[in-house]
Task: inverse folding
């Protein structure tokens, strides 16, 4: 990999490229990674970007204009390059890569077969814990309804007691009394008897609805014969629910194989991919995904990116993935997916027969979803990237992809804490949020607090970069913002600018100015106050950022209060306990206000004696003399 230099000569570096497989990363002038790609031959692939004779899409041409340097990672094979490319795209979300917008986890039904008295629960991840997993399913609501139905039908316990260890320690819960649990927690059913019902649950989850329907019909008939009409009605309702579930399962293959049916529909700069989940020959769910940045891209390229990004994060793969269109590197991706699952995974693009009808159905669904969601997507883009673009134009700066905002909290004169919130492309990026406890002084002083927070943040970031982490380890400080937003006006902005100047950094700083009612009214930038249209998306974005920074700081401060890690300066005054401290703060509002009161005013507070009032008065006067 070439070393980062202050002057990167692209022509010279192109000559050094090896003819090996690997991954390349393109950087812009702010050293952000704007594109990640893989190559069978790095020399040929990377050089092609800078050849005038090579045709490129408008998006790629725009990306090329922004490249200031590139780096590459050599791998032993194309397969290794594919895996690395997927990981890097997921980590950095480069602007010019076609990105999968959704970042979901899929619900599973989990049966704890390894326990003496198994339970049925919903899980978001598959783990090697001895339990049996069914899914994934597209709807968490459907999973919850199914679990509720199975517990009721087969009296499966819903508690998390460890049995048989906790047998008899507590009375049976309400579910036992309403005949929806057989009470294994009190030894009212043996493990063997209980497992008979668990086996019925497993049959149901495996799609054996005929068995379940027959079982419910027998129970309903038996209850009616014994004149237990309420029980019969319950079984009748359960029978109708199961019949509905059974009818909604579409049989797709008599071979009862697991496969995903993937259909793509693309229009202008957006695309939708629909995935049908077929398990044991039955369609068990559907999900859809929006993809961005696909203008002028071929379907082949879009679907290739989807398959790589989606299946790199899917915990359990089917035997076959059926696609509506061809993809690049099909054999390499098949090898990669098969290696992940230690079994053969086939990728097919059917041209006729039942599978083709299914992928066509998936494409039709994608088209319907595109029509339905197009306006919503546009509105979401306007609220996020569109608002950031307008804000950047207002300030005459390049697109501020990463925005950092800072706030200070010092409730009731207690220790100061600071917050750093991060927005990427107009959306909160909570993994990058950071909390700070002020270490160099005590007492309320927002300016000194901001100076310490910013100094620590950027000194740490510079250190990480010097240690060889210019791209930023997740959770680190080495990635610097395109714009800093301070919760306040001229004073807060100048604090930030002074810190940046002392560290040799040049980052735009903007203040979020509030009115007398604590509402955002404008921006302070380069010694000017810029008005804001309160009905604009820019105003809404700035308000969200400001509120989020404030919320994060307040929550951190309160969490420390609950843990007893923060105390008020009033706690240091002899004779002032919790009751008098609360009374003082209730009467005067803040420690600063208390410090200005004379003895007579302090004595008027509920619970304050003359001795306590004198102690408070002298405490703050003594502090004043020491400061001088």
Result:
């Amino acid at each position: 990999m070439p070393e980062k230099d202050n002057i990167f000569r692209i022509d010279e570096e192109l000559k050094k490229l090896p003819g090996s497989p690997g991954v390349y990363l393109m950087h812009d002038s702010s050293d952000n990674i704007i594109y990640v790609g893989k190559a069978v031959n790095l020399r040929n692939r990377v050089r092609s970007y800078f050849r005038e004779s090579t045709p490129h899409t408008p998006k790629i041409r725009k990306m090329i204009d922004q490249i200031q340097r590139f780096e590459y990672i050599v791998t032993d094979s194309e397969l290794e390059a594919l895996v690395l490319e997927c990981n890097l795209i997921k980590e950095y979300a480069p602007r010019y890569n076609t990105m999968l917008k959704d970042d979901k986890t899929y619900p599973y039904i989990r049966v704890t077969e390894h326990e003496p008295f198994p339970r049925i629960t919903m899980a978001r991840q598959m783990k090697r814990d001895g339990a049996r997993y069914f899914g994934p399913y597209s709807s968490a609501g459907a999973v919850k309804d199914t679990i509720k139905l199975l517990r009721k039908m087969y009296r499966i316990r819903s508690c998390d007691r460890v049995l048989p260890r906790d047998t008899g320690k507590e009375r049976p819960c309400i579910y036992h009394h309403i005949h929806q649990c057989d009470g294994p927690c009190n030894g009212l059913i043996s493990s063997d008897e209980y497992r008979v019902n668990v086996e019925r649950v497993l049959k149901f989850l495996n799609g054996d609805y005929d068995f379940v329907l027959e079982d419910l019909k027998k129970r309903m008939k038996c209850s009616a014969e014994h004149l237990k009409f309420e029980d019969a009605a319950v079984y009748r309702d359960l029978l109708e629910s199961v019949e509905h579930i059974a009818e909604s399962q579409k049989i797709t293959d008599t071979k009862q194989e697991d496969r995903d049916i993937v259909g793509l529909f693309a229009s202008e700069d957006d695309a939708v991919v629909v995935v049908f989940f077929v398990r044991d020959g039955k369609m068990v769910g559907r999900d859809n995904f929006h993809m961005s940045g696909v203008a002028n891209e071929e379907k082949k390229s879009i679907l290739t990116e989807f398959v790589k990004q989606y299946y790199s994060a899917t915990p359990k793969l089917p035997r076959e993935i059926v696609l509506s269109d061809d993809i690049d590197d099909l054999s390499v991706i098949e090898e990669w997916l098969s290696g992940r699952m230690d079994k053969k995974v086939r990728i097919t693009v059917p041209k006729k027969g039942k599978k083709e009808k299914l992928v066509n159905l998936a494409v039709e669904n994608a088209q319907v979803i595109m029509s339905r969601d197009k306006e919503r997507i546009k509105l979401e883009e306007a609220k996020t990237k569109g608002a950031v673009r307008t804000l950047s134009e207002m300030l005459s700066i390049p697109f501020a992809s990463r925005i950092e905002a800072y706030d200070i909290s010092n409730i009731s004169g207690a220790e100061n804490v600071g917050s750093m919130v991060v927005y990427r492309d107009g959306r909160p990026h909570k993994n990058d949020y950071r909390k700070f406890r002020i270490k160099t002084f005590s007492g309320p002083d927002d300016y000194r607090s901001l100076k310490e927070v910013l100094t620590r943040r950027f000194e740490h970031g510079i250190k990480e970069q010097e240690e060889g982490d210019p791209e930023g380890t997740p959770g680190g400080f080495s990635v610097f913002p395109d714009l800093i937003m301070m919760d306040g006006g001229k004073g807060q902005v100048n604090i930030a600018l002074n810190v940046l100047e002392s560290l040799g950094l040049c980052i735009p700083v903007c203040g979020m100015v509030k009115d007398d009612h604590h509402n955002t009214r404008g921006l302070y930038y380069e010694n000017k106050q810029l008005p804001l249209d309160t009905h604009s998306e820019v105003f809404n974005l700035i308000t969200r950022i400001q509120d989020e920074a404030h919320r994060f700081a307040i929550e951190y401060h309160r969490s420390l209060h609950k843990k007893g890690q923060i105390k008020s300066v009033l706690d240091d005054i002899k004779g002032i306990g919790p009751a008098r401290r609360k009374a003082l703060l209730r009467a005067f509002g803040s420690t600063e206000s208390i410090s200005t009161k004379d003895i007579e005013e302090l004595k008027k507070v509920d619970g304050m004696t003359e001795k306590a009032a004198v102690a408070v008065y002298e405490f703050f006067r003594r502090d004043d003399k020491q400061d001088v």
Confidence is low (pLDDT under 50) at residues 1-6, 247-254, 623-628. DSSP finds 19 helices and 20 strands in the chain.
